[in-house]
């Protein structure tokens, strides 16, 4: 074959294969192109036997599903470290003009205090306590959640731990996502920590953040925890502290999160039954959205863009979603019978709002086993019409991928009802 023929063949190959390639690699936003799929049944055990009561669900089936998510999706989450300890680093009893008491709490993961996070929390004043609370991870640092000038900027030591690419953003950059005064006026405490305190959000082979504390001496495997598991672990450590704070009722703590931190909140709620309520805001792929729908972000795409988020086993399912032994409705089912809220945004097609809702429907049979009403209608729900069924809440906010006051007001109403 001469060069000309080769070039021609290469051109033909590109011509004939490119569209197919583009189709598998491209993002599907067309409902008619969602592949047909069968969801794994949360109420059928690995041995094929049906689950007919709460006891079998709790003793047999729930542990199976939790284990599958740990081994095949997120990686195993370790427990409380032996040297975990807390220090109140700063306190201001007159935050927001006296509305609340602010605390910054050092949560140290080791005795040397080289691995830690700083929890920022506000407790409403003039409310008879102990009060219920919301806890969630933040994206940009505690200082970015508020204009409260008392909140510390990241220290030199934190910045060193976050890595050279970390950019400190101005105070209050993410303030619209954190309506502290509204939350406090409704009688709730609120607590948050920066994701990078627990694990900086880039792939460095798990050398930074909290992983080395546990991985040291144990070679990492395909089931080892990724970054989402690390953040979820951090949420449980925040709850460990809240259990020691007399101002907060640790039995009434809602864990929430937006986007990647919504995936984190769901996984934290599944792993740690102490969380009394779970809220997923626009959590999408690897969160509330069904993987098998391949609508918007897919398993292959998320594992390629964020190779550190999940465990290595999850990569086996890139483009092979039907082989997954679980789907995300079963993650939601692990929250049962606790109150669960799943929210989406109408323009956030990347996160597959319909797939997030169908996941809620798919988790329904487990809530029904506990005797609760559930969402059963598989038609897409209307935009801006929040609904509560039994112990499940749902809405689709008009607009883009974000967590805004509209979302918060729904979560507060839901908490008023159930916390
Ligand atoms: C996107 C990612 C989503 C979501 C989002 C976020 O880039 O594809 O899964 O997690 O980031 O966390 O804002």
Account of the 3D structure:
The protein has 2 domains: 7-17 and 26-74 and 283-401, no CATH class; 85-252, no CATH class. It contains 12 helices and 10 strands. It has helices at residues 3-25, 54-74, 156-162, 180-185, 195-198, 211-215, 227-242, 260-271, 299-305, 328-333, 353-369, 405-418; strands spanning 85-95, 100-108, 116-124, 131-138, 189-194, 248-258, 277-281, 340-345, 387-389, 392-397. The chain has a 10-stranded mixed beta sheet, sandwiched between helices. Strand 9 and strand 10 form a beta hairpin. It is globular and about 55 Å long. The model is unreliable at 1-24 (pLDDT under 50). Bound molecules: beta-D-galactopyranuronic acid. Beta-D-galactopyranuronic acid (GTR) binds next to loops.
What attributes characterize this protein structure?
10-stranded mixed β-sheet, disordered N terminus, 12 helices, single chain, 419 residues, alpha/beta, globular, 18% strand, 2 domains
Short description:
This protein has twelve helices and ten strands. It has 419 residues and is α/β, with parallel strands linked by helices.
């Amino acid at each position: 074959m001469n060069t000309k023929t080769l070039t021609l063949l290469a051109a033909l190959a590109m011509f004939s294969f490119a569209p197919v390639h583009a189709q598998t690699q491209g993002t599907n936003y067309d409902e008619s192109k969602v592949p047909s799929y069968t969801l794994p049944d949360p109420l059928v055990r690995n041995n094929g036997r049906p689950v007919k009561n709460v006891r079998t669900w709790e003793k047999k089936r729930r542990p199976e599903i939790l284990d599958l998510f740990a081994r095949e999706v997120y990686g195993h989450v370790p427990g409380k470290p032996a040297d975990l300890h807390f220090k109140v680093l700063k306190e201001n009893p007159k935050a927001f003009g006296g509305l609340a008491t602010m605390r910054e709490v050092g949560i140290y993961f080791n005795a040397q205090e080289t691995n830690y996070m700083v929890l920022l929390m506000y407790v409403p004043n003039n409310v008879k306590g102990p009060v219920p609370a919301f806890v969630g991870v933040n994206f940009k640092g505690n200082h970015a959640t508020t204009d409260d000038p008392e909140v510390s900027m990241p220290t030199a030591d934190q910045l060193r731990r976050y890595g050279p690419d970390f950019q400190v953003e101005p105070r209050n950059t993410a303030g619209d996502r954190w309506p502290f005064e509204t939350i406090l006026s409704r009688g709730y405490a609120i607590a948050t920590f920066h994701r990078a305190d627990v694990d900086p959000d880039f792939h460095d082979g798990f050398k930074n953040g909290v992983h080395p504390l546990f991985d040291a001496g144990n070679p990492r495997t395909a089931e080892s925890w990724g970054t989402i598991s690390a953040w979820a672990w951090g949420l449980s450590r925040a709850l460990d502290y809240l259990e020691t704070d007399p101002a907060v009722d640790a039995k009434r703590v809602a864990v929430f999160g937006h986007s990647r931190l919504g995936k984190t909140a769901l996984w934290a709620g599944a792993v740690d039954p102490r969380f009394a309520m779970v809220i997923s805001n626009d959590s999408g792929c690897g969160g509330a959205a069904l993987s098998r729908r391949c609508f918007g972000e897919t398993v292959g795409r998320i594992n390629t863009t964020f190779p550190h988020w999940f465990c290595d086993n999850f990569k086996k399912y890139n483009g092979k979603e039907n082989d997954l032994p679980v789907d995300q409705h079963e993650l939601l089912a692990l929250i049962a019978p606790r109150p669960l809220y799943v929210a989406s945004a109408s323009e956030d097609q990347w996160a597959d709002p319909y797939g997030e809702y169908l996941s809620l429907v798919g988790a329904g049979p487990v809530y029904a086993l506990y005797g609760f009403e559930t969402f059963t209608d598989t038609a897409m729900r209307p935009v801006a019409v929040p609904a509560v069924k039994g112990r499940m809440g749902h809405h689709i906010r008009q607009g883009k991928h974000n967590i805004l006051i509209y979302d918060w007001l729904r979560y507060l109403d839901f908490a008023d009802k159930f916390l």
